[in-house]
C-alpha cells in the first residue's frame, strides 16, 4: 500500500472529543467491524491505549492521521515520543477539560529541535 491508500483519520480520545469528531464525519467501520477510533475513559487501561496506538501506527495501512488527546498521550508518553514515522501523522489535540500544552507535544519538540529553538 502506498501513501495514497491512507485515507482515514484515526482517533484515540475521550468521549466528548470522539463524539464531536464522529459527528464531523471521521468515523469508519470496515467490513471486519474494525473501527478507526477508540474512546478512552477512566476504566480504560494504559495497556489498551498502547495496544490501540501501536495497532493504528504499525498495522493499519489505511490511516493517514492519528489524532490523540494530549492528556491521553501523556499516559503513553514514552511510546509517543519514540514514534517518528511520517504516516500516519501524529497530532496531539486538546480535550474539553484538558487544554493543549505545547511544552508536552513531542512532535512540536522535534520541530523546534530541527529549527534550533
From TrEMBL:
Molecular function GO terms recorded: proton-transporting ATPase activity, rotational mechanism
Bilayer topology: Peripheral membrane protein
InterPro entries: ATPase_V1-cplx_f_g_su, ATPase_V1-cplx_fsu_euk, ATPase_V1_fsu_sf
Cellular localisation: Vacuole membrane
Entry GO CC: fungal-type vacuole membrane; proton-transporting V-type ATPase, V1 domain
One Pfam family recorded for the sequence: ATP-synt_F
Cross-referenced SUPFAM superfamilies: AtpF-like
Annotated keywords: Hydrogen ion transport, Ion transport, Membrane, Transport, Vacuole
Description of how the protein assembles with itself and partners: V-ATPase is a heteromultimeric enzyme made up of two complexes: the ATP-hydrolytic V1 complex and the proton translocation V0 complex.
Family: Belongs to the V-ATPase F subunit family.
Role played: Subunit of the V1 complex of vacuolar(H+)-ATPase (V-ATPase), a multisubunit enzyme composed of a peripheral complex (V1) that hydrolyzes ATP and a membrane integral complex (V0) that translocates protons. V-ATPase is responsible for acidifying and maintaining the pH of intracellular compartments.
UniProt name for this protein: V-type proton ATPase subunit F
Amino acid at each position: 500500500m502506498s501513501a495514497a491508500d491512507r485515507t482515514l483519520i484515526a482517533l484515540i480520545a475521550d468521549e466528548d472529543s470522539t463524539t464531536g469528531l464522529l459527528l464531523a464525519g471521521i468515523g469508519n467501520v470496515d467490513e471486519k467491524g474494525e473501527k478507526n477510533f477508540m474512546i478512552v475513559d477512566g476504566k480504560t487501561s494504559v495497556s489498551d491505549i498502547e495496544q490501540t496506538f501501536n495497532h493504528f501506527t504499525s498495522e493499519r495501512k489505511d490511516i493517514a492521521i492519528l489524532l490523540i488527546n494530549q492528556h491521553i498521550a501523556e499516559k503513553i508518553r514514552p511510546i509517543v515520543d519514540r514514534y517518528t514515522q511520517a504516516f500516519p501523522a501524529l497530532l496531539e489535540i486538546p480535550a474539553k477539560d484538558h487544554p493543549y500544552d505545547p511544552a508536552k507535544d513531542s512532535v512540536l519538540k522535534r520541530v523546534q529541535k530541527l529549527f534550533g529553538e
